[in-house]
Amino acid sequence: MLFKKRSDYVVFPGITGLGNDGFYGQTFRAEITREFPVEAIYLKLQFSLTVATSVTFVDPTPGAGWFAAIKRVTVQVADGARTRNVVDASGVQLIEYARNIMAGGDSNYNSNRFIATATNVTLYVPIYFAHPQVSDPVSSMFLLPAPRYNQNIVVTVITDTKANVVTGTNTETLTDLSLKVDRREVNIPDWQYFDTELSEVSYSLAATGQQSFELGVPGAYTGIQLYTRSSALARNNPFTANSENRLQYLGNVVRRFRIEDVQAENEWSIPGAIQATAGTPNAGVYFLDFLTDRVGESVDEVGSVLETNFLAATGARMQLLLNIASSGGTLSLLSHRIFGDISGLKMKSVGSAPAPGK
Length: 358
Hints:
By secondary structure, this protein is mostly beta strands. Helices cover about 10% and strands about 40% of the residues. It contains 3 helices and 17 strands. Strands 2, 4, 5, 7, 9, 11, 14, 15 and 17 form a 9-stranded mixed sheet that branches. β12 (about 245-250) and β13 (about 250-255) form a beta hairpin. The protein is globular and about 55 Å long. The model is unreliable at about 110-115, about 275-280 and about 350-358 (pLDDT under 50).
């Protein structure tokens, strides 16, 4: 990247002595100081088990998913005009989003994604501000501009109850809850930053048939991740098989797609062990990528993002029209968007570029 890296870590206060399942159902807060803009935050949750237990890492079914321990993560900033969340999402959504934009997780995640027998569990959840799919210098414009805030950045982690995470007679003892913080030493005084947001909104799938879900305005979306669960909280595919789904505004269709095709595109882009069982795709996570459409690749500009700024004056919204076959579950939409006028981040002269050799 353009600027030198600074790394640090922050340990959440109040974690000492949280044995015998004491960290479940708790709220933890930590502050990140404002010396330099923040490139990324890695949330680390580590605990030991009294009995080795075989549990899936990312299946949110009660009793079957360690990442479900991270119920919610928020990153809050105060820029003088207002206090807002730049990140607000569940642990499962965050780790799957990171997997999608990075074309895979770390070795611990890839090896233990579905089944792991362990006496010690370590979870890392990366949260990126400088988007990994965007090359510099554009990527550095998405750094979290901490020096410009009038208060420290506040990271809040809410853990779920034990019943929603793991079953059995064993108990867990928290050994580490911390943040690895990567910063960049920006040495250009008038460097331009763009505000971004990574936010998750959940909906109840109360009925079958075509359902409409509205996207927030304004902003330019780099990606939207659909995450579906049954009424029993298990990952599922509630969509009508091989049916038409649409992304549209005011009747204008931006994308027409089948969920099966989105899933295939996602799976082709992810290396490693990614199936629940042999020949069975991983249900429940479907990523619409507006940067590359080839998950895990990078771009030099953002001309392909899904823009909604032009709708702000009309009162209209971008809509996801999805065909639902199984009701009773939930749909969560995790979206990443850029705010402001991004026209300067797009290539404008490609049509008039000279032919090779001229």
